[in-house]
Amino acid sequence: MKLAKTLATALTTVAIFGFAAAGPCWAEWKPKKTVEFIIPAGTGGGADQMARMIQGVIQKHQLMDQPMVVINKSGGAGAEGFMDVKGSAGNEHKIIITLSNLFTTPLATGVPFSWEDLTPVSMLALDNFVLWVNSSSPYQSAKDYVDAVKAGADSQFKMAGTGSKQEDQIVTVAIEQVAGKKLTYVPFKGGGDVAKQLVGGHIDSTVNNPIEAVSFWQAGNLRPLCVFAASRIEAQGTAKWQDIPTCKEAGVGIEYQMLRGIFMSPGVSQEVVDYYVGLFQMVRETQEWKDFMAKGAFTQTFLSGDEYKKWVADAAVVHKDLMTKAGFIAAN
């Protein structure tokens, strides 16, 4: 239960946030060529969907004079993407969207990378995790599911997730500790593939982000059991997110939320960072962004500057603690 309790307290503390004060004035610097937008994850997942939506909004509303291209670099649990940006010192035309593999990948793989090797730009949102089962499953609540895991044999139930020793598996280990039984964890490259495996009945459950599974839920293929957050999702839209109880309400005391943020190459000037901060502030004002936030049931926030750096630094400490307790730290 130690990891579950840590998830239920430490991450909640780190996830406390507020809207940042009005951002910096629009910088004079502007891109001079195509901007590469790196995704350290596979296609179809939450990071991929958000990055591509942002690219489309920027293009539609002509928020930037130069083109933006989205590039997936998911190898090594995202290490391919992070190392690419780390190795692009001074590159003013390369940005990367990050999830919690910003912290988990170097800890789990030993790859020589830290968030401090990049330049923080801004936090865009915090993403939620939901416990999902197939709609034909007999489990109507999180308690039903956990009770079944408890009653079953070790490794009987299959849980799919994005990557190994990342966010999805951290939450899976916390569920194991609550249930007192092992789950068979099956990793995939992206959240889209994970959701499809559950729709196809090849696995028993997932902890997909809302945006990765909402279309299957609305189509009647999946059933949400609980959200791993401190409070119910408040997002408005066609999906009834507010009807999903928190896992704590359902007797499963686990809380976890994930960063959706922007970093860029090391060694760039503050003027360049200010440009991208302003760009993403404009994206957030569009109706497309607001609709995406509602559809994906995100916890909306915007942080930049020292506030963002502090949040990231605190989250790095929390993730190291969680990864250590889960036994996921790479051997030296």
UniProtKB/TrEMBL annotation:
Keywords, in A-Z order: Signal
Signal sequence extent: 1-27
Keyword flag Signal: yes
Pfam families: TctC
Tagged with keyword Signal: yes
Superkingdom: Bacteria
Family statement drawn from the similarity comment of this UniProt entry: Belongs to the UPF0065 (bug) family.
The protein's name: Tricarboxylic transport TctC
